[in-house]
Amino acid sequence: xxxxxxxxxxxxxxxxxxxxxxxxxxxxxxxxxxxxxxxxxxxxxxxxxxxxxxxxxxxxxxxxxxxxxxxxxxxxxxxxxxxxxxxxxxxxxxxxxxxxxxxxxxxxxxxxxxxxxxxxxxxxxxxxxxxxxxxxxxxxxxxxxxxxxxxxxxxxxxxxx
Length: 161
Description:
The protein has 161 residues and is mainly α. It has helices at residues 5-24, 27-43, 53-71, 82-89, 93-107, 112-123, 128-135, 139-160. It is globular, with a radius of gyration of 16 Å. The relative contact order is 0.10.
């Protein structure tokens, strides 16, 4: 069954715009990225499944914004988003490989939703309650996943040091 893009836009448009603003730190760029996100959904609506629409839109918006940041890699780095901008715009192959390996180690064996939880919590600055509502988990479920990630990162820091 094809995705109802208009219904998704009405319900999740503000969430997508908030995500784009967070990543791009530019109002016009965020509006363009939001539009591009829904255009992608519209283009592929027959192939997409609407089981987890907020997660799907979040991922598409994130990828759209990261692509924009990559294209602007020689542009100014936005404050408050330095790590993300660094990751997105890194043209240093060694750093890119190191960051990719680190992220792989942190998230290996984790559910895809755990990555989304981490982005919402650490990058977007959402509260446990907001993240729980977005991903459809309980607040304690979100806390457990963040706690497990912290433990994994702490373990990796000990190995790296």
